[in-house]
Give the backbone structure.
Amino acid sequence: MTVALKLAYKGTAYCGWQVQKNAKSVQETLQDAMEAVFGFRCPVTGCSRTDAGVHAKGFVCKAEGVPDGIPVSRIPEALGTKLPHDIAVTEAWEVSEDFHPRYGAKGKRYCYYIRNARVRDPFTHETSALWQKPIDATACDAICAQLVGTHDFRSFMASGSDIVDTVRTVREFSCRREGETVIFSVSADGFLYNMVRILVGTVLDIHDGTLRQSAREVLDAKDRTHAGRTMPANGLCLEEVFY
């Protein structure tokens, strides 16, 4: 069988999704669990390459060669017996062999979580970034709205990236507050390297006056040096993949 899996994981202990030499990845850890359950190592393809320290609640991957005799509905539970506490398979369903979790995706939604407080919370510090200055979520939401639409997001791509086509469609970019947590939500048809972290950093730098340009001026510059900071990886989470 070819099976799609939805994963939730805390990326703190991992070098990211993709297998790398001399570092522990989510992909390798999942394949280890599959080998322990199925008796052989299944090829696994992911929907994206999340960076070190980035988390996911709705990461989708494809596993090929899963034994036919295993009920698909039992796969999450079976793999759960072999996976570490910070990775879980939450759903599994059979797909066609030509299903591709990355190229078949119509878009993704990320959230960036910020603890807006003077002191760090020991229970959430690995999954949210600390920002000590006051954040007006309503004001930030208005800045976010300027970046919604189809644009050239070259200003919001990490320096040194070799991507040529930097036009993306951001369908939703918003900011809201839930107590001491400020949440930025971004949905788009695709993302450039570090795009979400730079988008959020730019909005915050404009909000507190560190960056003295409007969001549209940064966008129109098509130059990374005009944008704001790159936020830390620990606040970023892949929430959902759209097919």
User: Anything to note?
Assistant: The first strand starts at residue 2 and ends at 9.
